C-alpha cells in the first residue's frame, strides 16, 4: 500500500509522504503512486511534502527485496526526470530531514520551501551509488557539490540557505508554500514551461540519464 496522502490543496495537486515511523522510506507502491500523480496533469502545479514536520524522506526503502529495490531506484530516476521536464512547476515543502532519494527529490523540485528544521544529506557514495551528480553542480557548483556528495555531511537550514539550495527559511513552510502556489497559478503556463525547458536542456536530462544508468546495477549493499 502506498505510504502517501494525495489531495487538492491551495489550487495545486499535493502528495505527502506518510510513513514517519520509517522516516518516509519510499517503497515500490509509494514511488509508483507518486509517478502516476506527477503524470496525471502535467501542467498543474504539484506540491511534494510530508505529513510529518520531522522528516521529508530518507529515500528508497533499503529493506525492500532486490527486485523491488531496483524498481524503486529506477522509478525514482524517472520521477526526477519528470519533475524537471513536466511543464507545470513542482514545489517541495521540506520541514525535516531529506536524505538520499529524499535529497534528490528536494533538489529536483523547481522550487523549495524549507523550515528551520530542514536538513539534507547526500549518502550515495557510501552505498556504492552516484547520487546527485546530475543536479548538485547545477545548484551549488562543482566544488561544493563534490564536497557534499563525498563528505556525506549534514546541511542544516542555515547552511541550505547559505549554499543557495533554498531561497529563505520559512517560519511556516506550508503557509509560505500556499502563498507561492497562489502566485504560480497567476503566471502564464506557457512561459513557466518554456523557462523550465530552457534551463533543463540539453545537459541536465542527459546527466540524469548517465547517473540513472550508472546506478541501475546497484546490489543494495552499503559500504559503511
Explain what the structure shows.
The strands form 2 sheets. This protein has a 5-stranded mixed sheet with strand order 1-2-3-5-7, with helices on both faces. A 3-stranded parallel sheet has the order 4-6-8. It has helices spanning 28-40, 66-85, 101-108, 136-140, 142-151, 157-162, 173-184, 189-200, 203-215, and strands at 4-9, 12-17, 46-50, 55-57, 90-94, 97-99, 111-114, 119-121. It contains 9 helices and 8 strands. The protein has a single domain, classed as Alpha-Beta Complex (2-enoyl-CoA Hydratase, Chain A, domain 1). Strand 2, helix 1 (28-40) and strand 3 form a beta-alpha-beta unit. One of its GO terms (molecular function) is isomerase activity. One of its GO terms (biological process) is fatty acid beta-oxidation. This is Enoyl-CoA hydratase/isomerase family protein. InterPro entries: ClpP/crotonase-like_dom_sf, Enoyl-CoA_hydra/iso.
Q: Quick one: biggest sheet?
A: 5 strands, mixed
Q: Which structural class best describes the helix and strand composition?
A: alpha/beta
From the coordinates shown, what is the CATH architecture? Alpha-Beta Complex
Uncertain residue ranges: none
Beta-strand proportion: 15-25%
Main β-sheet, spatial strand arrangement: 1-2-3-5-7
